[in-house]
Each structure stands twice: as structure tokens, then as C-alpha cells.
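Quick board copy: two proteins, each given as sequence then C-alpha cells.
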Amino acid sequence: MSPLETQTPAAPAMVRLPLLQLMLVGLQHVLLMYGGAVAVPLIIGQAAGLGREEIAFLINADLLVAGIATLVQSFGIGPVGIRMPVMMGASFAAVGSMVAMADMPGIGLQGIFGATIAAGFFGLLIAPFMSKIVRFFPPLVTGTVITAIGLSLFPVAVNWAGGGSAAATFGSPVYLAIAALVLGTILLINRFMRGFWVNISVLIGMALGYGLCGMLGMVDLSGLAQAPWVQVVTPLHFGMPKFELAPILSMCLVVVIIFVESTGMFLALGKITGQEVTPKMLRRGLLCDAGASFFAGLFNTFTHSSFAQNIGLVQMTGVRCRSVTIMAGAFLIVLSLLPKAAYLVASIPPAVLGGAAIAMFGMVAATGIKILQEADIADRRNQLLVAVSIGMGLIPVVRPEFFAQLPLWMSPITHSGIAMATLSALSLNVLFNILGGAERPVVAPTH
């Protein structure tokens, strides 16, 4: 082993925050990622023609696996878990492939779950090899990828702020006013208050926005009364999984893309928390991603990965201890057992989320720009690397149908702005700074 692999810096401290503060900051993480966490099972359940009750079961299953995976990723169990403040949830990278599988004769949900199990096992096998790529992520590449992550997330924030894609009057002044209230509250708290209040500024802003929506009759609680108080997620609820070669190959490709995305996210979080992410740490984190996907297939849900949007919340609040995401993981597990509580969280209007997300997703991009200051951006080739990679990352955001004529198996790459930017930055860094002999310096000069 190289010295880089054997020397592992201490994990972020398990800071003993007061219980109330710990719960509130953890709740912020849950509220931010909840919409993304439930979107994947909602989309796949509808594509598979499931009824409302079965889709609700899929959502609860996803919350359970996301909660357990978040606990393992944050706390660490043996050689698994990066031991950093990471939130886990169902990955969007596989949505296109899974929607297609749901319509295939003889595949359906059982085939999707079988492919997820097989791909998770494949990920466990390749994680140790994927962890060796840290050396290809100097500040030039890391900063570019993190900037692209923030920019690729920003359209989601704008869509939420305008009322969401399902809004009949997208961009209504009411939606914009609610998003502005949430954003303005966050900004004012960060300007005029300190400490605990800054840490929960996002939660306060969202609470005010939710209260206003409630008074305006914009909170939809339909289905709450019919939802059971307690429901336990059981494995193999939809029957034994099916293992078919084509779906398995497609999902294995998804796992590779998830690994590329997660590597960029882990390195971003390392910069925010002041930690050097070593190959050993990266291997632990990727093993958790793969293990979560393996067990997800058994527990009626889909491939899991780290959530990029929560990185912005870590930067925004300044709370960088693992105990916060451990608490958030516990919240997710409780929500998976209490469908009524999950309905309440799901009732948060998109405009409320949008006001908070504009600040947090922007913070991710700002972090990437800050890291790029460590690179030699005066070099024309490095400028070209940043420009092309960010441009490639924005293609799926600006025109999602741009690669529609390419083979379906490429969709996990071409539909992910993060994957496109990461692969571009890695390739151009090899071309410009590594090929042809000794590596060129890509770090900004100190004089």
C-alpha cells in the first residue's frame, strides 16, 4: 500500500450538540432530501402500474433503506461507511433504465429488484478498484466537478420555487412570494444572528413558508386520514426477484456512474469539512453505496447513492459533524414506519423547498469556485478544461433530449450532468496534465 492509503485522518468529530439542536439540524437534512428520496419510487411505481397503496409501500421501503444507509455511511461499521456527514437515498441515475424495464414483458418490478441486487454485488466487487482514482482528482478537477454539481442542481431549485412541474400556474406571484419569504428569512438570519439560529436558518425559513402555505390553503393533506399509523417494511414484498442479463448489465453501468458521482461528492464534502479524502476512506464510502443498493433490491427499492443537495446544507449551516446525519438517518427510519408522518413531510409545497434550495445549491457551486482558486487557472489549458467540463455538465440540464438518439444503455451517463462533468474533467486532466510524461502542476503558484 502507498502512504496515502495507510494514513487515514480522523473522521469528523462526533460533536455532542444539545439534543434539541441536533434534532432540528437533522430534520433540515431530511426535509431537503425527502422530495428526491420519494421521487424515484413514485416514478417507478407509476411506470409499473401500481396502485396508491403499493406506491406508498415503495416509498416507505426507500425511506427505510435510505435511513439505514445514512447511518452506516455516517457512523461506519467496520470497513463500510466513509464516516462523514452524508445523506443517502435512491439514485436518479437509473430512473430511465428502470422505467424501460417496468414496461418489458417478463421483467417488471421483480426484474428491476433482481438487477439492483446483482448490480449492488457488482459494486461491492469493484469498489476497491474504483477507490484508486483519487489521484486523478486534483483541485482543478475537484473544483470543476463541485461547481458543476451546484449548477446542475440549480434548475431543480428554480423549478421548485416556481411551484413545481405539476403546478397549473407555474411562476405564479404567490409561489414566487413564498420562495422569496423562505430565502429572505434564511439570508436575514445569517446576516443578523449567530450560532444556533444560523444552524437552523433553513428550517426556520421553511417553517415560515409552510405556515403561510397552510393559511393560503396550499398544503395538500389528502390521504393522511387513510394512511395507517404504523407499517413495517418486509423484504421481497413483491415476490422473488428475477435475474435477467440485459437489466443486470444496464444496472451495473448505473453503479459505475454512481461511483463516479459519489467520488466527486465525497471529495466536495472533504473540502467543506476540512478533511483529506484518502483512497481508504473512499473505498469505505463506495462499499456503503454498493451495499445499500444490494440490500435495497431485497427490501423493495432501488439503487442508492449519496445526495449532492445535502452537501450545500453542510456548507450553509456550518454544522459538519456526523452526529447530525446520524440523527437524520434515524428520522428516515422512523418515517418509514409511520406513514402518517411521512405524508406530513411530503405535504411541503415545492415553493417552500425552492426558496431554501436556491441558497443551498448555490453554495455548492460557490464551494467549487473556491476550490478552483487553488488551481492554476491562469493556464489556458486549465481554463479550457473548466469551460468544457462545466458546459458538458449543463447539456442534460439545458436540453435533456440532446442525447435522445443515442443507445438507451448510455442514458445513465448522458442524463446525468454530474457524470458528464466528472468524466469530461477527468479525461481532459489526463490529456492536458498527465499524458506525455510527468504530471504538469495544476495547483496555483504561491508567488
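And the next:
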Amino acid sequence: MKIFVDRDKCQNHGLCAISAPASFQLDTDGELQYQESFDDEHIDDIEDAIDSCPLQAILLHPDAA
């Protein structure tokens, strides 16, 4: 699985960065940065981040084979 953020929806609220700081961060300009790939140990935090996004801009996509 990979993380995908819809940049058209995302308004950089940062709730995902609070829920899953290993995968999501706000840079010095307040813009969301994220890592598409993640370790399975972080899946619960990432699911919390998805649930916390007020604009539902975060999705999980299967890895392309």
C-alpha cells in the first residue's frame, strides 16, 4: 500500500501530521509533505490520519506490481 494525498483537496490543516508524524509533516512554509511508502507498523497511525482529515484528502492505494 502507498499513501496518496489529493493536493486539490488538501488545505494543509496538519491533523494528519499529528496522527502520523512518521509519514506526514508540515514544512516551514506550512505545506504538507508526506512519504508515499510506509512500514506496516505505522498502518494504525496512517488510518488515524486518514480518519482525521477534514477534507478526506488522504487515500491508500495498492502498490503497483
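Board note added afterward: The helical segments are 15-19, 43-52.
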